[in-house]
Amino acid sequence: MMTTVRNLKIFLEVYRTHSITDAAKHLYITQPAVTRAIQDLESEYTVRLFERYHRRLIPTAIADHLYTYSDQIVSLMDGMEKMLKQEQVQAKIRIGASITIGTFLMTEICQKFSKVCSNTELEVTILNGTALQSKVLDNSLDIALIEDSIHERDLKAVPFFHDEMLLIMSKDHPLYRKKTIILKDIAEYPLLMREKGSAGREYVDALFARYGMQIMPKWESGSTQALINAVRSGLGISILPSQLCQEALHKKQIVSRSIYHEPMKRTYYIAAHKEKYITKELKQLQNVCMSLSAH
Fold this sequence. Notes:
By secondary structure, the chain is of the alpha/beta class. The chain is built from twelve helices and eleven strands.
């Protein structure tokens, strides 16, 4: 027979009250149940825990030692039980986002999520797509919001949003006056691109690769704003997410052109490990992300 926490709790109450009757009252159980728990302990360890004097139970020396251990064990178990019950509400979700999603969607996601799960904190990490996938794989992140491409086979991806890429240039650029632009035209000019590993860079590389073309960028940057500024200054052209170009377009600092027969559409994904347990809070967060597509 293994000692149970219940028996230890009963022992503690008998030790404190020196009475089977009082212990039973305090624990809301029957006196025989208290007596049986004490007998089980004494039988299991072949010890005597109490002596009876004038209707009172006097702890023996071994009972004094057992009390010290039992008090610690019961406290630890009570603390563990409390923690587990609290953790039924996921206290924190570690969410990653690409630079584009982090820039124009993450604030709205956090605000909407706080309204439906006010007791759960979002810990946000902004990185490029390759780094995000690695962090989801090693459980450094619970989920990640990634643009367009998920390479890792151990990740599952759920689409939640769509956007488009834009070819941008200064208003004085020769391509702006060209009636029809094809990819070959773009390859003839300095191209300013996101860094390798970013979803935006992978999209552009794949776009040219479909036609057997490999591009050597003039600039590589992890900052979309730096690329927009360089385009505005006439240092080259770029292909960037539409959402991140809107302010500069509205201010007429840059202009955009379509590429012949290239729709330039992308999909955003919620990425999680295939073995990840989806708590109700994570499900709520996914629902918030999915609701953005209704905009």
